[in-house]
Every structure is written in structure tokens, then in C-alpha cells.
């Protein structure tokens, strides 16, 4: 963009949003230009902070007029570089941080309408204040936003019982690529009237339009959450325990997380104030959570009986059941600290694979062998939502090695090994975090060609000029 047009464009943005909400000084832009993992840093013409839907629409209209790409950004906790602009400085970042009102809560209907920039933890608290539960929960919940959660179709720790972000959404308000407001804030549980546009925008990673508000499903708040940590010999034992827990606990089973002993040791190393309830006697641990609506003591008795029976059958080596909310939180804190401990340990090669449970053991065993053969000394940090068939299969540089060098030299080979193995097992290279810019080429490589062609057709139909989050998700899209 020529300097004169650039000034005209910035002036027009200021006229819509007010001077304070159009950032363009380097020190103001900086926090919006690097992703959470610090893998990507881009440049931007400006960062804009609209405070209402009409302002988002006006900004998008201006971008359409000037041919400027728009990168939507919520809490900037995404793990695939989806909210970071490219490095040409020709795009704007549209931050939803000021779109942070809860518009309504109807506990009787179990519906909450939140603007896209509401922080997930605030939505959980608003539901809680009405005696209800908004069950989406993930370690980034203090920063990530509803818009980002929906745009990445976030999963988290309670998918087993409540589903992904998509399953928790009844309807959306979206600003389209043309700057129109699509009011599809459906509050109905049943509404079969043509294509589900909601399902297009959920998981689109900002490439089709900007979500400005969402109608979200609420659930009765459990009266008790009972958490247990169990050490298991291997992944096969963890899967057997999952089957047992599902049949004994039914819908009460809300969380089932697998963690390698190595990932917990990393947490202990970097956060020594966090203690494990037992010395790790085996290579794997499982975190189980049961949520009860009918009294804690019955639920606790059921979970303890389940664990005792599993121990008698040799599925569990040792286990502990949290005796208080504080103990339960401490167990979850261990799990949620694994990504943070990994970040402290240094750059690592991350994978977010999904594999059918029936092939999980084969995947874990064969991939460990292949990775350690190809990269001697590499450390596997494996953890995740086993109940959903989703593991974070991360590879850390050998002890003492230069992590950045390791990443640069071995990422491609490592991705090939892990993603080939997941796909060979009938799985996916992207179970939870999305595609963004990190996995764009993987979509080209592993995506079903018919599906990718249809995605391109949808993109062309809804965003013919390619101005919505350019260069993300779809491989080989022209830059804007
Ligand atoms: P951002 O990072 O700001 O954006 C993510 C993507 O959505 C980008 O492509 C962006 O352009 C787009 N976007 C953002 N807002 C909008 C909008 N309003 N309209 C259109 N597009 C938009 N993810 C999981 O699924 N499960 C987990 O368990 C999980 N755990 C995590 C733990 C940690 C410690 C961290 C750092 C991340 C974790 N994540 C997890 C990934 C991430 O937090 C989630 O994907 C989250 O949903 C992103 O929300 P955000 O507001 O930060 O989005």
C-alpha cells in the first residue's frame, strides 16, 4: 500500500473506532504480533480494537475497500500461528478484546450469549453464578476467548462428556468478508433450516469471517467433582481402564487424561513446588474425573470401587483419590502444567494427533521406536485427552542439546514420522489445535483431496478476495 493510501486507510479506521483503538506504534503492536509459542512474529499496518459488532463490520468494509487482509485475534493462545499476521506489514490484526460483554443468560433454557472477546474463564464464572456449568475447560482458559475457542473448535478436558466447542454452540453472530452482519444467534435446540452456517464458521480459524458473538449451551452444575490419579503400566492398561470407567461411571466420567511419567517429571523439575501424590512407579499415569449431580459420597464410593477393582485386575499400579477441592485442583494443575514445563525446557516439536482408540497402542509403541531410532536421545513428552483419542505427542531435544537447532534440523523428519504413523492408523495430524500456518502443508499432504477442494470452493464463495486471515489453513492461498 502506498504511504498516502495507508494514511487514508488509518484515518478511516480512526474515524470508525476512535484514535485510542487503532494501534500503530511498534511498541503497541508488539504484543499482538508474536504467537503464544513464539514461533511466529509478523508485522501489521495496525491493530484495531472494535468494541461492538457494527464497528467490526465497518472495519471489514474498509478492509474490503482497500484490499487489506484481516487477521482476527482473541486471546492469542492458539498453538498453530493462526492469529499472527505475515511479515509484510500489509494486514491488520483485529483484536476482539473489547467485544467482551455477556449479552444474556437464561439458566432455565440453558443458554448464554457471549461476545467473541469474552475470556473463557469469565464465561464459566458467569454460568457458575447462575448455578450452571459451561463445560469447555482448557489450560489457557484465563486468556483464551470464546471467539478463538469456536474458531479453532477447541476441545479441552471435558470433551468426553460434553463435546468440542462446536457441540457447545447453538448459534453465532458473524461479520462476513463483505462486512455484513450475519445474525444466526440461534437459541433453539432444534432448527433444521438448510445448511448449517454455524458449522462452517466454527473451526474456520477466521478464514471465512469474524465471529462477534455466540449462543452457548449451559448444563446443570455438578454438585461434586471427584478426581483421581492412577499409575498404569502401559497405554493398553490405560485404555482398559477407560473402558471400565465408561461402563461403571457412564455420563459421570467427564475427564480421562493420559500423561507419560516423563511429562510429569518435567513438571516436577520446572515447578518443584508442585508435588506428585506418589513416586512414579510406572511409565504412564491417568487422571480421571467423575462429575456428580447426586451427592459426593456415592460418586466417591463408585470411583474408589472402580479403582480397587482395576488394581486387583492389575490395570493400575497405584492410585490416589483427591479428598478435597484443593487436592483435586492440584492434580489438574499437574496435568495443565505440562505444556508450561515444556515451554520452560525449551523449543520442542509438537504434534496434536488423533488416533482411533483401537489403534492407539500400536501408534504409541511403533512411533516411539521410529522416533528414537531416527533421533537418538530425543525425549518423548506424551500426554493428552486419551478419552478422545487425542494425544500431544511432543518431541524434546536430547538433554543438553541446542533446542532451537534440534527443531530446525529435525522438525520435518519428525513430523513425517509422527503424522505418517497417525494417518496410517486411521487418525489425523490435527485433532485439536487446528491448522493455522504451522500445519497448512500437512493439510495439503494428508488432507482428503476432495475435502480440500471443497474447502477451497467454500473459501472462494464466502471470501472471494481472500481477505479473511490470508495464508492460514488452506495451503497455497495467495497473500493479501
Ligand atoms: P487466538 O489464538 O487469538 O486465535 C486462534 C485462531 O482463531 C486464529 O486463527 C484466529 O485468527 C482465530 N480467531 C480468534 N478469534 C476469532 C474470531 N472472533 N472470529 C474468527 N476467528 C477468530 N486447545 C484445545 O483445543 N484444547 C486444549 O486443551 C488446549 N490447551 C491449551 C493449553 C495452553 C497452555 C495453550 C497456550 C493453548 C491451548 N490450546 C488448547 C490452544 C488454544 O488455547 C485454543 O485453541 C483457544 O481456543 C484459542 O483461543 P484464543 O482466543 O486464544 O484464539
UniProtKB/TrEMBL annotation:
Q: Domain FAD-binding PCMH-type, which positions? A: 40-221
For this protein, the record's InterPro entries field holds:
FAD-bd_oxidored_4_C, FAD-bd_PCMH, FAD-bd_PCMH-like_sf, FAD-bd_PCMH_sub1, FAD-bd_PCMH_sub2, FAD-linked_Oxase-like_C, FAD-oxidored/transferase_4, Oxid_FAD_bind_N
Task: Keywords in alphabetical order, please.
Answer: FAD, Flavoprotein
Cofactors that this protein relies on: FAD
Has the keyword DNA damage been applied to this entry? no
Question: Mind listing the GO biological process terms from this record?
Answer: respiratory electron transport chain
- Cite a single GO MF annotation: catalytic activity
Q: Quote the Pfam families the UniProt record gives.
A: FAD-oxidase_C, FAD_binding_4
The UniProt record lists the keyword Flavoprotein: yes
The UniProt family comment states: Belongs to the FAD-binding oxidoreductase/transferase type 4 family.
Name the UniProt record assigns to this protein:
FAD/FMN-containing dehydrogenase
Species name: Thiomonas bhubaneswarensis
Amino acid at each position: 500500500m502506498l504511504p498516502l493510501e495507508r494514511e487514508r486507510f488509518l484515518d478511516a479506521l480512526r474515524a470508525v473506532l476512535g484514535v485510542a483503538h487503532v494501534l500503530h506504534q511498534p511498541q503497541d503492536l508488539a504484543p499482538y504480533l508474536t504467537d503464544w509459542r513464539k514461533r511466529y512474529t509478523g508485522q501489521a499496518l495496525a491493530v484495531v480494537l472494535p468494541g461492538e459488532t457494527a464497528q467490526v463490520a465497518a472495519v471489514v468494509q474498509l478492509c474490503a475497500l482497500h484490499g487489506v487482509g484481516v487477521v482476527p485475534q482473541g486471546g492469542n493462545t492458539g498453538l498453530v500461528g493462526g492469529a499472527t499476521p505475515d511479515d509484510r506489514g500489509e494486514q491488520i490484526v483485529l483484536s476482539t478484546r473489547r467485544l467482551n460483554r455477556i449479552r444474556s443468560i437464561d439458566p432455565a433454557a440453558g443458554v448464554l450469549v457471549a461476545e467473541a472477546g469474552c475470556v473463557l474463564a469469565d464465561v464459566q464464572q458467569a454460568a457458575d453464578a447462575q448455578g450452571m456449568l459451561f463445560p469447555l475447560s482448557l489450560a489457557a482458559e484465563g486468556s483464551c476467548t470464546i471467539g478463538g475457542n469456536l474458531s479453532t473448535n477447541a476441545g479441552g478436558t471435558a470433551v468426553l462428556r460434553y463435546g468440542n466447542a462446536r457441540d457447545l454452540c447453538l448459534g453465532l453472530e458473524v461479520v462476513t468478508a463483505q462486512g455484513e452482519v450475519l445474525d444466526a444467534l440461534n437459541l433453539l435446540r432444534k432448527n433444521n433450516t438448510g445448511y448449517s452456517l454455524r458449522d462452517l464458521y466454527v473451526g474456520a480459524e477466521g478464514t471465512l469471517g469474524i465471529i462477534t458473538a455466540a449462543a452457548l449451551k449451559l448444563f446443570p452444575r455438578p454438585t461434586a467433582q471427584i478426581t483421581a490419579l492412577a499409575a498404569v503400566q502401559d497405554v493398553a492398561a490405560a485404555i482398559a481402564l477407560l473402558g471400565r470407567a465408561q461402563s461403571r461411571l457412564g455420563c459421570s466420567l467427564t475427564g480421562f487424561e493420559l500423561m507419560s511419567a516423563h511429562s510429569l517429571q518435567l513438571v516436577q523439575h520446572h515447578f518443584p513446588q508442585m508435588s506428585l501424590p506418589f513416586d512414579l512407579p510406572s511409565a504412564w499415569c491417568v487422571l480421571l474425573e467423575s462429575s456428580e449431580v447426586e451427592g459426593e459420597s456415592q460418586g466417591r464410593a463408585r470411583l474408589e470401587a472402580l479403582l480397587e477393582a482395576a488394581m486387583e485386575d492389575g490395570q493400575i499400579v497405584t492410585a490416589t483419590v483427591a479428598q478435597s477441592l484443593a487436592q483435586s485442583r492440584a492434580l489438574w494443575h499437574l496435568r495443565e502444567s505440562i505444556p508450561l514445563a515444556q515451554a520452560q525446557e525449551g523449543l520442542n516439536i509438537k504434534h496434536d494427533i488423533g488416533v482411533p482408540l483401537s489403534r492407539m497402542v500400536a501408534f504409541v509403541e511403533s512411533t516411539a521406536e521410529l522416533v528414537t531410532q531416527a533421533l537418538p536421545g530425543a525425549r518423548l513428552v506424551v500426554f493428552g485427552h486419551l478419552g478422545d483419542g487425542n494425544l500431544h505427542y511432543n518431541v524434546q531435544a536430547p538433554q543438553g542439546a541446542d533446542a532451537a537447532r534440534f527443531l530446525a534440523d529435525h522438525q520435518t523428519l519428525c513430523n513425517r514420522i509422527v503424522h505418517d504413523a497417525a494417518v496410517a492408523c486411521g487418525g489425523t495430524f490435527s485433532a485439536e489445535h487446528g491448522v493455522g500456518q504451522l500445519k497448512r502443508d500437512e493439510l495439503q499432504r494428508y488432507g482428503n483431496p476432495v475435502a480440500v477442494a471443497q474447502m477451497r470452493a467454500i473459501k472462494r464463495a464466502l471470501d472471494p478476495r481472500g481477505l479473511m486471515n490470508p495464508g492460514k489453513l488452506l495451503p497455497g492461498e495467495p497473500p493479501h
